[in-house]
Design brief:
Layout lengths: L1 H22 L3 E6 L7 H9 L4 E4 L8 E5 L2 E5 L12 E4 L4 E2 L1 H13 L9 E4 L3 E2 L2 H14 L11 H9 L6 H5 L2 H18 L7 H15 L3 E2 L1 H10 L4 E4 L23 H8 L6 E9 L2 E3 L12 H9 L12 E3 L1 E2 H11 L3 E5 L9 E10 L2 E2 L7 H4 L3 E8 L16 H14 L3 E5 L7 E3 L3
Parallel strand pairs: 1-10, 1-11, 2-5, 2-10, 5-7, 6-8, 7-9, 11-15, 14-16, 15-19
Antiparallel strand pairs: 3-4, 12-13, 16-17, 16-18, 19-20
Helix pairs in contact: 4-5
Length: 448
């Protein structure tokens, strides 16, 4: 009997080991660590040259990722930034909500800039939900209803589309490609629901149905079960890179609610948005801008409504890729980054736009929050508390010299190196890359 137990025990351990090694942490993840616009697209573009597959896992065309390749600036909203790499497969996962007119318009615009050979490298999940034009109308109407209490959404229909998904009357990509009569039935039911809720909404149902019949045929070559595709790829030792959209502080659960997006843009959204198990995740790269920005309304503890904020906004060309709105600007906030690191478990950091600080004589870094005179040991979950906090700053000397042409960390000015090391030591996370310009060539690998 004891021998049988040993045999069974060994069998169990062997199966467990085999199952664990099936994944062997082949998936790397790039996540925004602040309120978005950190430069994730550039980091993904850099890393995509060494991976087989790049995936988007959540959000929609409310995201805006800029990549500069060979002097050409590409803007991606739904397409994974890795699509520039002609050796790489790009996957739009089940957690993404897709506005088809926006997707095909984005493809056309980037083709005109030189995007080539993408047709055989784009896969779209049959489980991804569709964003319709009326979702975008509803987004605008809901924002208008809030008046001065609006959330500052992109009005891309993302929230209403996720609401349809959660209400179980949303429509998936696979349903568009199936029996069109069933798609039409669901479409008319969804339209009727919105007309009841928003009597003034204008929807030409017949024209939309014809348009989507045409879209179905354009879309068909790219659609498949991406969950099965990814798991097969991982078993074949393929490497996968996940491009998070939006950012941790815009996460619907962990962000500054309600001034957030409508999806989980933290590590959990990677798993549910692609159908991956936790053991498949290896490196989690937090992308951190060397200062802090946010678009739209909501609390912003280190915001600088002064000449510093103006300088960062102007020198950093801080305009939203999607909305074209000015970004609010302020000092780097390490209390915020410690919080998002708790949620996401960053294994390394890519620090971007260090060059924007080149002209400053002194640089402040927020290191802690005070509420009612007491240092907080956590990030406030209440907006009212967050609006009352005081930020404790540490002041570091600036470097007052140009860093844009630097390609080795050791060649950065001493004070710039100290700035990076201070961030690294305070967070307890290695800074692996430092960005000092727009192009992919301007990312300095600290460990080279």
């Amino acid at each position: 009997m004891s021998d049988e137990k040993i045999v069974n025990g060994n069998h169990y351990e062997a199966l467990r080991e085999k199952r664990f090694n099936m994944y062997n942490a082949k998936v790397s993840v790039v996540l925004g660590a602040q309120w978005g616009d950190e430069g994730k697209g550039k980091v993904v573009d850099m890393l995509a040259s060494n991976v087989d597959i790049v995936c988007r896992c959540q959000g929609g065309n409310n995201a805006g990722h800029t990549v500069v390749a060979n002097g050409t600036e590409f803007d991606f909203h739904l397409l994974p930034s890795g699509i520039i790499n002609e050796k790489c497969i790009s996957v739009i996962g089940n957690g993404v909500v897709i506005h088809l007119p926006g997707l095909f318009d984005e493809i056309a615009k980037n083709e005109a800039k030189g995007l080539a050979k993408w047709e055989n490298r784009l896969l779209i999940s049959d489980r991804a939900h569709l964003v319709f034009d009326f979702h975008q109308q509803v987004d605008g109407l809901q924002e208008a209803e809030k008046g001065k209490k609006s959330l500052g959404t992109t009005k891309k229909g993302i929230g209403p589309a996720y609401s349809s998904k959660a209400s179980r009357n949303g429509i998936r990509v696979g349903e568009l490609l199936g029996d069109f009569n069933l798609f039409e039935e669901k479409f008319r039911s969804l339209v009727a629901n919105y007309k009841r809720l928003f009597p003034g909404i204008e929807i030409d149902e017949e024209a939309e149905l014809q348009r989507y019949k045409d879209y179905a045929e354009k879309l068909r070559p790219f659609v498949k079960d991406t969950i099965c595709f990814l798991h097969t790829a991982l078993r074949q030792d393929k490497t996968v890179l996940v491009e998070g959209a939006n950012a941790a502080m815009l996460d619907i659960d962990f962000g500054t609610y309600p001034y957030v997006t409508s999806s989980n843009c933290s590590i959990g959204g990677v798993l549910t948005g692609l159908g991956l198990p936790p053991q498949a995740i290896g490196e989690v790269i937090g992308v951190v801008k060397a200062y802090t920005t946010r678009v739209g309304d909501g609390p912003f503890p280190t915001e600088q409504l002064n000449e510093i904020g103006d300088l960062l906004q102007t020198k950093g060309a801080e305009f939203g890729v999607t909305t074209k709105r000015k970004r609010r600007c302020g000092w780097l906030d390490l209390a915020l980054l410690k919080y998002t690191s708790l949620v996401n478990g960053y294994t390394s950091i890519a620090l971007t736009k260090l060059d924007i600080l080149d002209t400053l004589k002194e640089i402040n870094i927020g290191v802690a929050y005070k509420l009612n005179g007491k240092i907080l040991d956590h990030f406030p979950g209440s907006i009212s508390d967050l609006e009352k906090i005081e930020v404790e700053y540490v002041t570091l000397p600036g470097w007052e010299s140009v860093t844009a042409k630097t390609r080795k960390f050791s060649d950065l000015p001493k004070n710039a190196q100290e700035y990076v090391r201070f961030i690294e030591n305070e967070l307890g996370i290695p800074v692996k890359w430092v960005g000092v310009g727009k192009g992919r060539e301007s990312i300095v690998n600290i460990h080279q």
